[in-house]
């Protein structure tokens, strides 16, 4: 049991019969009336985001969420299949529960968020940036580095991002998974 003074980003609450994670919050003390806490909450199972206001000092139940390392194996009609690196058990998640799935390739490690009391897998967390090989794009031309123009490129995970004109097929690029944007070309040691 916690109250609104314990709120922090990432805290998971049991609210309205479901699990909700605090995305952002703000304590508000108006000149007139009682203080309150304005929150933005994400449903841990569905990903739906809602706004809610709690009275200052209001008691709420918290839930313990664990991050467990899993390796992505493959995707099929049933969903995305992962294997625990500790127990080698496999689990399947529906595509909506996998955040940033367009940037996940086979064999990559991600964190699966699990409700500790029930062992129910809820969602995934991927790194803020990933390195992927460009599998398809128009050829780059010499001298196309200063204009700032971009072109679409398909990555090995299937995602399409806009890259500078000098990027060629076979190049490895670093991509921001939150915004889906090109960051830089990665030089690989041969």
Descriptors:
mainly beta, SH3 type barrels, OB fold (Dihydrolipoamide Acetyltransferase, E2P), 3 domains, five-stranded antiparallel sheet, 0% helix
Structure description:
There is one protein chain. The strands form 3 sheets. The protein has a 6-stranded antiparallel beta sheet, with no helix packed on it. It has strands at 2-3, 12-15, 18-28, 36-43, 49-55, 59-62, 65-76, 79-84, 90-93, 109-115, 120-125, 129-137, 150-155, 160-164, 172-176, 181-186. It is built from no helices and 16 strands. The model has no long low-confidence stretch (mean pLDDT 88). The protein has 3 domains: 2-62, SH3 type barrels; 65-125, Nucleic acid-binding proteins (OB fold (Dihydrolipoamide Acetyltransferase, E2P)); 129-186, OB fold (Dihydrolipoamide Acetyltransferase, E2P) (Beta Barrel). The protein starts with a strand and ends with a strand.
């Amino acid at each position: 049991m916690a109250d609104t003074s314990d709120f922090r980003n990432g805290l998971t609450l049991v609210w309205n019969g479901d699990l909700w994670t605090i995305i952002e919050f703000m304590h508000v003390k108006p000149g007139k009336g009682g203080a309150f806490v304005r929150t933005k909450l994400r449903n841990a199972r569905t990903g739906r985001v809602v706004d809610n206001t709690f009275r200052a000092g209001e008691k709420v139940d918290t839930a313990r969420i664990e991050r467990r390392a899993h390796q992505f194996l493959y995707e099929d009609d049933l969903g995305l299949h992962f294997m625990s690196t500790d127990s080698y058990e496999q689990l399947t998640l529906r595509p909506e529960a996998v955040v940033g799935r367009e940037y996940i390739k086979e064999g990559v490690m991600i964190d699966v968020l699990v409700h500790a009391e029930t062992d129910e897998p809820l969602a995934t967390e991927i790194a803020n940036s990933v390195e992927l090989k460009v599998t398809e794009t128009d050829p780059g031309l010499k001298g196309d580095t200063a204009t700032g123009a971009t072109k679409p490129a398909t990555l090995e995970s299937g995602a399409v991002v806009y890259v500078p004109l000098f990027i060629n097929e076979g190049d490895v690029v670093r991509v921001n998974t939150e915004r889906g944007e090109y960051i830089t070309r990665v030089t690989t040691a041969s």
